[in-house]
Specification:
Layout: H1 19-23, E1 40-46, E2 52-58, H2 60-63, E3 68-72, E4 103-104, E5 110-116, H3 119-126, E6 130-135, H4 142-145, E7 162-165, H5 168-174, E8 177-185, E9 197-203, E10 206-211, H6 217-227, E11 234-237, H7 253-265, E12 269-272, H8 275-281, E13 288-296, E14 302-314, E15 335-345, H9 358-373, H10 396-407, E16 420-421, E17 424-436, E18 442-448, E19 454-457, H11 467-479, E20 486-489, H12 506-524, E21 531-536, E22 548-560, E23 566-576, H13 583-602, E24 608-609, E25 614-615, E26 633-638, H14 662-674, H15 685-694
């Protein structure tokens, strides 16, 4: 169904229905539950070594500090289930015990916990804890470990670590035109606006945890596993989340410590991580070392297509960033090879960060494609290249054509470093985008109240993306009601379970469940039934087709001739993502992803201090992200794209598509402006200066 044909609320640029609550301070986030005076406050003491053992903890001064209620160490922490199991199908539901071992697994590993009447008292007392360590040599260098990296068998998205079609090596060796380039991407951190926080309280044997989490069912099962209690005795509340970006898919030690200490003290306890603690006690995006090899014939047809990646994994974990996933789906070639290798290091866990795999895989792949495209015209494909099934809908070529027309691509100078604006070198770049579309299990409940209002309940989350709003629109259209007469309630395991928010599956999955519940309710009203439940499952997505959203990014940059400073002057994204559920929130998601891509291209990175195994940048003063001054003219548009083989709504996931390929468009524009090929990201000025100096030769 074309967007212009929609008469109901779906697709309209409706303002966020939860907006008034947020701007007036009435939307409660995790740390805001239980008022001052009711809850006690916890503070985590973090390890100051990268690997070793705790051989002693002196808590005497801390215990005597004003307001202190409890000091927890390994010596007095209650029994818990050990971490894991590592191979649990839902890795976000693993046991996450606190203070159950003397081992220090990484820098920042929790080694003690203080609870006091106020946050300030807990923090002050934590500084009085004296920890003695037996340090051990750790392995922290991904580049040094790369030659010993292991084949993980499977990668983070469930696919095989390696894929091969045809005879890549022979085809690449025989190709008359070829690219063989190595790329590096750095460690990155999600740095959500809201730090990780939890508030826990017990009512008899029932535990309630208000926490900042993208999921609801997983932390419920995980905490039950950790504490050895039935899952039905755990309630998770997470109604509002101040950003997640994959970093809040797992639950963390704050939830466990809040639950343990609340039980011991018989009063609510709330815990919030500090910003520096987020950089070590939560997950990050791995650094990567990649090799991209492309071979083509003289007519521009790809004959060989390969991508290799080495990524970091925590010593205790098995997560492998799916770097090559996009390479397996984006372009056609008869001879293909992708390989993932995993290096286990003594660093915190790497895991999902917005568009895991594709964000950094496309950064390398689309830069290599730009090199090839300087001489060749490349093929598009309507067939899923490795599974050999058609895409449910694929309009990448249309995105490129529409974007080129809107952006003025025909005015691009093909010769690098040939366009100037005063002392600025100006260039244009382009890159393709792809992000897989999936459907998970979810259920929802719809109830028509006696006053004619509709209440919809499901254990979905809203991480700032607009879930409350789009689900309101879906329910209103299905029940033929004004949106003002619909109330959506989310973020509570007392509601029907869903898969939560993440992996671009949230809106399609939860929205399809709401649609099913409302359709059932509408059909049952004639029989006097006023409540119904509906569900969505992966089988609702036609398995005879490949499912993905596509897009094209166009960027114009200026590079200062003397300093190497890069400014993104304008940027355009054109996307084909099925039926758009809310034009305003969808555009916001795409623009946010594109801005994140600018950061990946120009500034966002972290480094490991190889002496201590610590991330050097531990706050938002030193870990640079894009701010308003870094963004000029930026726009995102959607093509009308019917998808009859997609989910029941006809929509596709858009939470991550905007970041995919965005950074590569900026990097390719830098090449067009300066002639420099940057392969060690981000493209900071120091990496551009040699190329700029060569322009004088």
């Amino acid at each position: 169904m074309a967007q212009s044909d929609l008469a109901g609320p779906i697709g309209r640029p409706l303002d966020r229905v939860d907006g008034p609550l947020k701007v007036t301070g009435r939307a409660k986030y995790a740390f805001e539950y239980a008022a001052q005076g009711e809850a006690a406050y916890g503070f985590i003491v973090s390890a100051a070594i990268g690997k070793g053992r705790v051989i002693g903890v002196d808590v005497r001064d801390a215990e005597r500090a004003p307001g202190v209620l409890l000091v927890l160490t390994q010596d007095n922490a209650p029994p818990q289930t050990p971490w894991g199991p590592v191979d649990l199908p839902d890795r976000f539901a693993r046991a996450e015990p606190a203070l159950d071992t003397d081992a220090v697994r990484y820098f920042g590993f929790p080694v003690a916990f203080l609870v006091a009447e106020t946050f300030e008292q807990a923090r002050a007392a934590a500084a009085l804890v004296r920890v003695r360590y037996a340090a051990q040599p750790g392995e922290y260098d991904l580049h040094a470990a790369a030659p010993r990296a292991e084949n993980p068998g499977h990668i983070g998205d469930g696919g095989p670590a390696d894929s091969a079609i045809g005879d890549f090596e022979s085809a690449f060796a025989a190709a008359p035109v070829k690219i063989d380039a190595a790329y590096r991407t750095p460690y990155q951190h999600s740095a959500p606006m809201e730090p990780h926080a939890s508030m826990a309280f017990w009512e008899g044997e029932m535990l309630t945890v208000c926490t900042a989490a993208q999921l609801t069912t997983s932390p419920r099962e995980g905490l039950a596993r950790t504490l050895n209690i039935p899952p039905e005795n755990v309630r998770i509340i997470t109604r509002y989340i101040g950003g997640g970006f994959g970093n809040k898919l797992p639950y963390y030690i704050d939830a466990t410590l809040a639950a343990i200490s609340a039980r011991m003290l018989r009063r609510p306890v709330k815990v919030a991580m500090t910003r520096p603690q987020l950089f070590h006690s939560t997950t990050h995006r791995t650094a990567s070392e990649q090799r991209v090899r492309l071979g083509a014939d003289r007519d521009g047809r790809l004959t060989a297509y390969g991508q290799d990646a080495v990524v970091q994994c925590a010593r205790i974990d098995i997560f492998t960033e799916p770097v090559c996933s996009a390479a397996r789906r984006l372009y056609a070639a008869p001879n293909r090879l992708t390989r993932h290798r995993r290096a286990k290091l003594d660093l915190p866990r790497s895991d999902s960060m917005r568009a895991p795999g594709d964000a950094i895989g496309l950064l390398a792949l689309e830069c290599a494609m730009d090199e090839l495209a300087e001489a060749l015209a490349l093929d598009d494909t309507q067939i899923e290249p490795e599974l050999k099934i058609p895409f449910s809908s694929r309009h990448l070529a249309e995105c490129l054509r529409e974007g080129a027309s809107r952006f003025g691509w025909n005015r691009r100078a093909a010769k690098p470093a040939s366009v100037r604006d005063g002392w600025w070198l100006v260039g244009l770049g382009v890159a393709s985008a792809i992000r897989g579309d999936v459907l998970r299990d979810a259920s929802a409940r719809a109830r028509l109240e006696s006053d004619g209002r509709l209440t919809v309940e499901l254990a979905m989350t809203d991480i700032g993306t607009g879930s409350y709003t789009i689900l309101t629109q879906i329910a209103a259209e299905a029940m033929e009601l004004p949106v003002e007469r619909v109330t959506v309630r989310l973020g509570d395991t007392n509601f029907p379970p869903t898969a939560g928010s993440g992996g671009s599956f949230g809106a399609g999955t939860s929205g399809s469940a709401v649609l099913a519940a409302c359709r059932k309710l509408k059909a049952a009203l004639a029989s006097g039934i006023t409540e119904a439940e509906g569900s969505a499952t992966p089988v609702d997505l036609d398995s005879h087709y490949g499912h993905a959203g596509f897009g094209a990014h166009f960027a114009e940059v200026g590079v200062d001739r003397d300093t190497g400073e890069v400014r993104v002057r304008r940027m355009l994204g054109v996307f084909a993502a099925g039926r758009i559920l809310n034009a305003k929130t969808a555009r916001s998601q795409m623009i946010g992803g594109m801005i994140w891509g600018i950061g990946a291209a120009l500034m966002e990175e972290n480094h490991v201090d190889l002496r201590y195994g610590s991330f050097i940048n531990q706050d938002l003063a030193s870990y640079h992200v894009v701010v308003n001054a870094d963004v000029s003219a930026l726009d995102a548009v959607f093509l009308e794209e019917p998808d009859p083989h997609g989910n029941p709504l006809g929509s596709k996931g858009i939470g991550e598509l905007g970041i995919c390929g965005a950074g590569a468009a900026v990097i390719n524009a830098i090449h067009n402006a300066t002639g420099a090929r940057i392969r060690d990201f981000p493209a900071t000025p120091d990496k551009l200066l040699p190329a700029l100096a060569a322009l004088d030769d």
